[in-house]
Structure formats: C-alpha cells, structure tokens
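EI: anyone free to look at a 175-residue chain?
SC: sure, send it
EI:
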Amino acid sequence: MNTVKIAIIVTFCALSIGTDYALVGIPNVKLMDLTVFLGGFLFGPLVGSSIGMASWLIYGSLNPYGFDPRILVATMLAETIYGITGGLLGKTLRSTSLSSQRLRLSVLFATMGFLPTVLYDLITNTVYASVFGTPVIVAILLGVPFAVLHEGANFFIFGILSVPTITALRRVLRR
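SC: here you go
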C-alpha cells in the first residue's frame, strides 16, 4: 500500500472509531458500518476491508462493553463485509451520477446497509454463543431486539446518508 492509501485508512478509521465512541450510549446504532462501506465504495474493497479490520481492532480492544479476543476477531472479520460490499458496489456504480437517480440509489444503499448487517449479526451472535457456552439458537433469539435495531438503523443510515456523503466526497476527491 502506498502512503495515500494508508492515510485514507487512518482517516476513515479515526472517523469510524470517533463516531462509535460518540454514540456509545445508543446500542447498535453506529456510523462505523457506513464509514467502512464508504471507504470501500470510494477506494475499493481492500481499503474498505482494511478500514473495517483496523477500526474494530482499536475500538474492540478499548471497548467500553468489555473485551474478548475471540469476539474481537469475529467483529474484525465481520466488519470487512461492509468494506467489501462497498468496494464491489463502488466499482459497479463508478460512472453513475448519484444525483440523477437519488431515490433509486437511496433504496439500493439502504438495502446494502441492511443485508450485510444481517450477516454481521449472525456471525457475531454465533461467536458470542460459542464464547459464553450458550446454544446458538438461544443467542440468536436473545439477540433479536439488538439485531433488529442494528439492521433497521443501518437501513435508514445507509439510505439517508450514502448518496449525499458519496456525492460530497467525490467532489472533494476530484480537487
């Protein structure tokens, strides 16, 4: 990786971690997933997944809810889903004018916030069950309220913020 990519990763990680700590009082409503997704969308899946892994490495090691290395590894790997999804979608929509198709793309981005979050929640709930010796089905059922909040929040956060944020960042990056 060159120094520009490293600087991008560090900047997006700082934004990701800072917003997570700022929203720590609201469980499962975070901007980290969107930040990782946007990093992937704008700079490719490798950069996006690197942002996800590094963000969770730092945030998960200094997590106000506690620390377990197995859960840390699971969240680091699961967070890469957002960077990879963003990177693949970014390649597909590279030449698309976002403002001309704002509503349709907002729905697409909302869906891209929701679907990876379902997978993320399944992965992390399964690892949580393993770590604490809980049957997987029990962990998933107990996690349903938190998963629904996480998935619903990401649906709205991605749907509302993706198009204007990508549009603004594309303008800045053109300079």
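EI: The helical segments are 3-22, 32-43, 45-61, 69-92, 102-132, 136-174.
SC: 👍
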